[in-house]
Design brief:
Subunit structure: Forms a complex with SecF. Part of the essential Sec protein translocation apparatus which comprises SecA, SecYEG and auxiliary proteins SecDF. Other proteins may also be involved.
Strand content: 15-25%
Number of helices: 19
GO molecular function: protein-transporting ATPase activity
Structural class: alpha+beta
Distance between the termini: 54 Å
Number of strands: 15
Function: Part of the Sec protein translocase complex. Interacts with the SecYEG preprotein conducting channel. SecDF uses the proton motive force (PMF) to complete protein translocation after the ATP-dependent function of SecA.
Protein name: Protein translocase subunit SecD
Family: Belongs to the SecD/SecF family. SecD subfamily.
């Protein structure tokens, strides 16, 4: 059992150091491959960035309300957050202008997301491409390789040994281009044409809107790649290729827009209401169009229902209530809701809908459960935002300098360094050798915090502001509180007569609860502050929360194991006068608290004051014998009262 206890502290410390080494190694690799930098990104107040001033205008000439502007700001904020840009500032200026400030040098794609309005359209589905050519080719090649391997391993005919074995034909590998060509070559001439396909109708669902080249491009497009999920401006009067916004990999070839988002009157999420007035647990979105949208959707619903009926008629054996088949008619029985060039959902009509919808009221079913509820709320918001009749005119776009700059950052770091040095001086004065444990823990905590901030800057685009730096500096004091609580508990246990090893163990049992509760309070406070605050205060709360978590990890995985480990050394284990655990400094009362080499010194420390008083009464000088060993104690034990000789 003792052997286990001596091994565990070193194991914990080693594991923590390995984690730090791996983290810094990953950061160095990312820096070497130009994916990130060794230093965290800086926010607007420290690095500057790009500022755009947008003026909203309506497409129908109506007056813009405050609600419209606030919703437009929310749309922009959602787009910026989705693009991975942190610490952006979005606010109103004057009556209706919107100011967007993005840190550093944002990409052109991010700027486009800010410049353009939220544009939503209902488009007819012409083709649905499940999986891209690269994935299909990979699957086919894997299957071909398995079959070729099986064919090569098949035994030859034993009945005709003299005959040459018949070689099985090898299945050739397939390229993504071949897969896309087979899918797009509608007329079978082996050439991918850019001419329109033969017309199948006189509406927006006709094949005449698309080409073989469009089918080829849709099949080659990887709709799981992040670069294809950022959205783009698309011409509503032309057929387009659109990826599923959820990243499922599905690509849609869509006809010209039938209905614009500006024709939506309201979009509200909620559970389904039955004909008897009750509710079910099925979540969905109830959409109501204005008069223009109502008229358009009546024509759209009539057309899509005709395609659904045609698809079912092509497979009569399936029954009247069967799902649409996989023909193009079944695909054309659906409409897609497209926001900023991405399909947020596609849907057909439920079986209960048998006639065109003429009242302009549509319910889009999502599903059941908490996930469906969240999806319904998101879709309702997207439909509402897309329905805003607002465009943005860019009044100005310019580079802005840091509002505070590197000088303030340097001053903040100097202030933190000064505080760190003052803490070290205090620790050395108060705890002597134990200050080495605290300083080592502070260094590990600083390294861990820097690593976490740098990795968050890499993976989620976090940027460090001056308020965040303030949170880091304050965390030094929080970390020191943990050390002091622990050290004082250990010293209290030694004063109460425990051995050093027992004092460390018992002191840790009491201290860890206090430390955990204290850090939990700080963590809750930082989470609440982050949720309720905006701007720089959020940066302060974020770094405060990060450093609190790091403090807990360091105190449990490094400080306590290191404290246990250093007791193996005579300097600490036998209580050297500079160790911070010396009996004179602590007032230890147990002769067993330290090693044998300290027994006499402890005894002398405990009895020296009484002996000196006795010598003073007898008028004898203190020649140092009062703090000798057990012999000196025994010799004076035969003296009379107050040290007088008998």
């Amino acid at each position: 059992m003792p052997t286990k206890k001596t091994k565990r502290p070193g194991t914990r410390i080693l594991l923590l150091l390995i984690i730090l080494a791996v983290g810094f190694g990953a950061l160095a690799f990312g820096s070497a491959t130009k994916r990130t930098a060794m230093t965290p990104g800086l926010a607007l107040d420290l690095e500057g960035g790009t500022q755009l001033i947008l003026t909203p205008t309506t497409t129908d000439g109506s007056e813009i309300s405050d609600e419209d502007v606030n919703q437009a700001i929310e749309v922009i904020r959602q787009r910026v957050d989705a693009s991975g840009v942190a610490e952006a500032q979005i606010s109103r200026q004057g009556g209706q202008n919107i100011v967007v400030a993005l840190p550093s040098t944002p990409s052109e794609a991010t700027l486009d997301l800010v410049r353009k309005a939220a544009v939503l359209y209902f488009r007819p589905v012409i083709r649905i491409i499940q999986g891209n050519a690269m994935q299909i080719a990979e699957q086919q090649n894997k299957l071909a390789a398995q079959r070729n391997q099986a064919a090569s391993a098949a035994p030859t005919d034993a009945a005709a040994p003299s005959a040459a074995p018949s070689a099985s034909p090898t299945i050739p590998m397939t390229t993504p281009e071949q897969v896309a060509t087979r899918a797009a070559d509608v007329n079978g001439d082996g050439v991918i044409s850019e001419d329109p396909l033969p017309a199948t109708s006189n509406d927006n669902s006709s094949d005449a809107w698309i080409t073989e080249k469009m089918i080829y491009d849709a099949t080659m497009r990887d709709c799981t790649a992040p670069e294809n999920l950022t959205g783009e401006a698309q011409d509503p009067a032309k057929a387009v290729i659109s990826c599923d916004k959820r990243g499922s990999g599905t690509a849609y070839i869509l006809g010209p827009a039938d209905i614009a988002g500006t024709d939506i009157e309201t979009a509200v999420s909620g559970t389904e209401t039955t004909e008897q007035g009750g509710t079910t647990n099925k979540w969905g979105v109830s959409v109501e169009f204005n008069s223009t949208g109502t008229e358009k959707f009546a024509a759209v619903s009539e057309r899509l229902l005709a395609y659904r009926n045609a698809a079912r008629a092509a497979k009569p054996s399936a029954g009247a209530n069967s799902a649409p088949t996989s023909t193009t008619d079944s695909q054309k029985a659906q409409f897609a809701i497209v926001l900023d060039g991405l399909t947020i959902m596609s849907s057909g009509f439920r079986d209960s809908v048998t006639s065109p919808i003429t009242d302009g009221r549509v319910r889009i079913d999502i599903g059941q459960g908490g996930k469906a509820r969240a999806q319904a709320n998101t879709l309702a918001n997207q439909l509402s935002f897309g329905a805003l009749p607002i465009n943005f005119t860019v009044q100005s776009e310019q580079q802005i300098s840091a509002t505070l700059g590197t000088e303030q950052l340097r001053n903040g770091l100097i202030a933190g360094l000064i505080g760190f040095l003052l803490i070290i001086i205090y620790l050395a004065w108060q705890y002597r050798g134990l200050s080495l444990v605290a300083v080592a823990s502070l260094i590990i905590a600083a390294a861990g915090t820097y690593l976490v901030i740098a990795l968050l800057s890499w993976f989620i685009g976090y940027r460090l502001s001056l308020a965040g730096v303030a949170g880091l500096i304050i965390s030094i004091g929080i970390t020191m509180d943990s050390f002091i609580i622990y050290f004082e508990r250990v010293r209290d246990e030694v004063r109460n007569g425990r051995t050093l090893i027992a004092a460390v163990d018992e002191g840790w049992k009491h201290a860890r609860r206090t430390i955990a509760v204290s850090d939990a309070v700080n963590l809750v406070a930082s989470v609440v502050l982050y949720a309720l605050a905006v701007g720089g205060v959020q940066g302060f709360a974020f770094t405060l929360g990060v450093t609190t978590v790091v403090d807990l990890a360091v105190i449990f995985a490094f400080t306590h194991p290191l404290m246990v480990w250093i007791l193996r050394f005579r300097f600490f284990g036998e209580g050297h006068r500079l160790s911070g655990l010396d009996p004179e400094h602590l007032g230890a009362r147990s002769l067993a608290a330290y090693g044998k080499g300290r027994d006499a010194l402890i005894e002398g420390a405990v009895g020296s004051l009484a002996r000196r008083k006795a010598l003073a009464r007898r008028g004898e000088p203190d020649d140092g014998t009062a703090i000798q060993g057990d012999d000196a104690v025994d010799s004076q034990a035969h003296d009379g009262k107050d040290g007088e000789s008998k």
